Structures are given as structure tokens and as C-alpha cells.
Amino acid sequence: MSRYFTLLFLGGIAIPFILKSQFVNAEDDILEGEEIEVIGITPTHGVGLPRELIPYSVQSATSTDLARTQSLDLADFFNRNLSSVHINEAQNNPLQPDVQFRGFTASPLLGLPQGLAIYQNGVRINEPFGDTMNWDLVPESSIASINLVGGANPIFGLNTLGGAISITTKNGFTHPGHYAEAYGGSFERIVGTIESGWNNGTWGYYFTGNYFDEEGWRDDSPSDALNLFGVLSYRDKDTTLDLNVNIADTDLIGNGASPVELLALDREAIFTSPDQTENELYFVNLQGSHWLTNSIQTSGNIFYRRIDTDTFNGDGTEFEDDGTGLLVDEDGELVEDQFGNNIASTNANGTERNAINNISTREQEGFGGTLQTTFLSDLFNHNNQLIVGASYQQGVIDFFQATEIATLVCEFTGGDCEIPSADRSTTGSGLFAVEEGTRVKAHNRNWSLYVTDTFNVTDRLAMTVSARYNNSHIVTGDRSSRSNLVDPDDPEDLNGEHDYDRINPAVGLTFQMNPQHSVYASYSESSRAPTPIELLCADPDAPCNLPNAFLADPPLEQVVTESFEGGFRGNFNNIAYHVGGFHATNKDDIIFTSTGGVSSNEGFFRNVGETRRVGGELNLVGAWNKLDWFLNYSFVDATFRSPFIAASANHPNAEDLNGDGEDAEIQVDNGDRIPGIPRHIFKLGGDYYFTPGFSIGGDLVYNSDQFLRGDEANLLDTVDGYAVVNVRGKYKINNSFTLFARINNLFNTDYETFGLLGEADEIFDEFEDPRFLGPGAPISGFIGVAFEF
Fold first, then answer.
1. 387: Cβ–Cβ under 8 A, 6 or more apart, which residues?
2. Superfamily for domain range 2-317+354-788
């Protein structure tokens, strides 16, 4: 198979030369002539295509758009401005959001089914272990432009089930000059940014540094993040080279959802703490392009990326006293420590060991490269663009997790955990439950070949045909014997080797009805192989504690998405519009099924048959007098299409449906909505310019209700919908100084962005409601100053 596709790849490069007599010079290509907006249609961007020739929806933004909206970061900008995007604040940290697009997720949390591919300068930055996305590691100040591409576009490779986000960073040629900004305000937040860019026509540099620090609006929730980005660039008539370097160090406290009964008493209160994530990033990427002739460009990159993640999560315990003063697990087995001794249920001073500390480290290294060639010559006297490319990427993961027996501070100090208190943190005992520990190493290897061709059938009708072959090889290995905090009884239990491959096709048409209006339609397929974390946690008889212990790795099927998309776009007077619809079906979709845990973090991954996302979008952007405005409405109906029995340990209506003695199961039927996804999303915003240097603007974000995670059968009440209004202002004092301010959640609305089921009574004996909700931040204000020269 690999030999066949190598020949296909080489043949694709040779075709234009073999058919040279049918081609004309690229100077007559559609991309020449009047200046038009060009969109990158591959991970490495390349030459790109005019928007009207792209047969799927694309939402774009530039650094100017990000600066104008005063967004905290890229995810915040998506949430306020882009269609079909909403945020679930599962961690309740502003730098750790779950970003949802059309019901597909890009999240930093292990355990969520990821469905969006994220690229930065042609490098896929979804993490190797679980395809997760760490939004805290992409400094907003480094971004030159973004494209949010809808649909299962196979050209963007694995995990492009619902779409792809392509990020292009700044350099000294696109962003020369010097800039500094600082702002502060609510939650003791302080943010500072510096930028510097320069070029002499041949060489250039760009550097930005961003620092974020705040105490957080909830109890005991401080965070800080430092991001540095630099690029050294070279340009001549035919060649570009950019050496990009990212370094980041972040320390984030996200104390997650709280029981509804606790939120009713105090919205700032936290359930247990801390839930800490520390990330360190080192990322080097050399990218470039070269025009071989007037009609042939080659481009590509090579990269190395390393991210080290340490987590510390204080939580309630699942262990119990066996009646003799010793701890036992849910199966009644005595819990042993790293010294081989049974663990007592109380400390030496008699305080109860009623908590655990889940401690983990992840070392993830990725390296690889992409090479593609673009041919712009006309074919049979018709405009044509052919792109042929190949990519190779490896990921090496070293994961370690340990579970420390602990005590809640409020109990240890004589406080009462049955009432709200600011401190429900844990104190460790130094004893570890070795059977809950894990040490595993995993290795990903992905390579692919892709081709896409856009052919102008007529002056108004264009057809795009694409395909990508993906090959994934995943190896996992047990390393338990290398740590005395891990039970080494079954040293081969985690060993596994898995192979996945597939050809994903796409075809689309665009038709220019007249110079102002066009129509498009496409069909595409994409796939994602199960990630190492899913393969390591796929046995219902051996559930794991995310993101922690793993016990087995039975095979999972890869997820395949079949997607239809179509719509109209164009301009009417001073209004740009897009009206479109989409229909995406996931086959062999993978979800995490909860079997227990105080916050439902114990469970396993499984294939559940088909799921479907179907919906429509309306986007309007306009200008009227001194007002620039936009309006977005999205309808997203995300449902399960295959019935299955789901484990849901904390569901009040759970039954023993399988007849296996387990009474924590719910029946999910065809048509039940997927939790965490609102059906209706509405956004309205704009800026009014009193003078060129003075403007006031704002935005309104509305999300309708959604079901709780753990209630896949839709048996309980939903999380209420909500609307939030934000306002902002900017005043340019002179060419160098600018003052700006913003107020988030202007009307101080109480709202929740998502919910799940858990065990509140593990900490608060009097609490009976199993619902946990992720509260949104209250009203906040910030003021700052910017200086540029």
C-alpha cells in the first residue's frame, strides 16, 4: 500500500510536466490581477485560493480584528465573534476553555472526544497523547491571521472531523514596528505584552512576549502564564524562510464545576482544590517556500515540539473504611501503599483520610515535517491549481500517575465541610495507593499523502477534488516496574500495538452567479485514529481515573466522519453575507463513559456507533455610517444515532439494564442529544467610531440550553441557556498612545456554561442533587494603555 501511494505522489508531481503542452504560463492564472482575499487551503498554506473558489465555509480574522475586540486570547475571540462556536468552561479557568465548533471539540481536557485539527504555521499542535489543545500556549499577540475551516476537510489530516483552525503568526515583514501594552482590573488581573518587528528587505525579525497573572474570581484560583514567541525571517524574489520559536511556562488553577446546591449558597465557592496544571512548551519550526518556476511553488516545514505537563488534583476519595480501620476500594480489596502495607483510614492524630491527590506528569515530544508542491499553470486552457503534498509526524509520550491518600483541610483543622468554606484543599499523607498508579510510554507515528485540485470548468463554475491517505501506528508499553508508586503485578498489561489507515476523499463545486453572489456545495470525509489515552482506557471491566490510571488497551475502531456542506455567500450593498448548512455523521464515534468518581472522572472509552451534527448558519457583516457591525446565528442539532446502554454512575434514574448486577446504566436512544452542545447560538456586535481615534463597541453572546454530561439519555432537566453582554471602548490620544477599557458581563448575569453529574455528598453530607455546573464569571472591568512607534 505504501509503495503504491509513493508512486502516486511522485506521479502527481510529474503530471504537469508530462502534460506541459496543455499548460500556459501562470501569469494568466486567476490569482493574478486585481487584489483579492486569498485563503490557505492546506496546512502549510501555500499559494491559497480566492474565497469564492473554496467549496466550504471559511471564517477568517486578522491581528487587527483580535486587537479591536480586546479579546483575552484566541479562544475568547472565537467565542465572541465566530459562528457556530461556543465555550464550555469545564475547568473554570479563562485559559483552559473547551472550544466547541458545530458540536466538535478542541479542549485541553483528557477524556473529551476531540474533533478539530489545530495548525500553527503548518504544524498540527493537537497534543500526541489525547489530541487535546492547550489554548494557553498560543499567545494572542503572535497571531497574524486565522482561518476556521468548516467540514471534514481531509487535506488537514487526522482529527478534522468538524473543521480545522489554521493559525499564521506574525513576522518582521508583515508586522514591522514596536508595540507595548498593559492592562489590569478585576480579579487582580494584570496582563502585559511587548512586540517588536523589523526588516531590511532581505532579513527580518519579530518578537513578542506576553505575561498573564490573576487571582481568579473564584476562591483559591490564581493563575499565571508567560509566553514568548520569536521569528527570524529571510525574503528574496522567489524564497521565504522563517525560523519560529515558541517558549511558554504556565501555571493554571482551574477548580472546575461545583454542586448546584453549593453554587446556590456561594458562586465563588469551590468543591475541592486544588486542580492545578503546569505546562512548559518548547517549539521550533522552520518553514519556507520557493518558486521553482513562475508556475510551480514548493513549500514545507520541519519542526520539533516538546510539552511537559504536571497536574495536581485534590479530590474526594472513593476508598472506604472496612470497619477495622483500614481502607478498601470499591471492590472491597484492601488498599496497599508503596511499602506493601495496608493503609489505615485515619492519620496518627485520628483525622479521617477522606481525600486523594491525583498527581501526574506527561512528557510529550513531537517532530516531523511537511512538503508540498503547488502547480498554478492552466490545464487545457482552463484555470487550474494542483497541490500535492506529504507529511510525517512522530509523537513520543512518557506518562506517570500516582494517587496519594490525603485529608481535606477543613476536616484536618476541625472545620466543617458541610458548609461553604474557602478552603477545601487537601493535605497529603505521603502514602500512595500503588494499584491506582500508572507508568506508561506511548509512541505515535503518522504519515500521509494528499492531493487537491481546483479546476475552473467555466469562468463561473469551479470544481475541487481532494484526497488524503493517512497511516497511523500507535505503540503503548507498560513501565510500571520503574516506579515504586505503581503496582508492577501485571507488567505486560498495558503493552499494545495498533495500526490504522484510510483514504479520505472530498469533492466540491462553486458557482459564481454574478460578481456579488456565489453558491457552493461539497462532500468530504475525514478520520481520526484512537489516541493513546483512549486505547489505554478502553476496557469496561477496568475503568480508569482520567487523566490518571490505565489498566488495559483493547482495540477501538477509528472514527470516520462523512460531511455534506453547502450555502450561499456574497455582498449586498454594504453587507457581506453567508447562509449555509452542514450535515456530518460520525461512524464508530468514541466517547468517555463514566463508571464513577466524585466528579465522574472514572470510566472508559468506547465506540458507540453513529452520532450526527446537522445545522445551519447565518453570518452578516456590515457597515452603516460610522458603525461596523456583525450578526451570527447558528443552529446545531447534535444527536446520537445508534442506541446503546451507557454507564452513568451518578445518574438518579440509572438502572441495571444489562442484567449484570450493575445498577448505574441508562438507555441512550436514537435522537437523544449529545450533552454539552447548545442548539442555538446567537452573536451580535460592533463598534461605533465617533472619530477615527475614538470608538465604543460591544457584543452579545447567547447560547441556548444543553444537557449534562452523564445524562446522554436526556432524562434530566437541561442547563439553562444564557445571554452575556460585553462592552469596550478605545481612545487614541496621539499616534503613539492609546487608552482602552472593557467591561465583561455588563449586567452581572448569573449563568452556567455546562454541567455534569457527580457525587456532591462525598464532601457535603447534606447535598442530594448530583448536578455539577460550571459557573460563568461575574461582571468585571479592565483598563489599559498601549504604546506604539
1. 41, 42, 46, 372, 373, 374, 375, 450, 451, 452, 453
2. TonB-dependent receptor, beta-barrel domain (2.40.170.20)
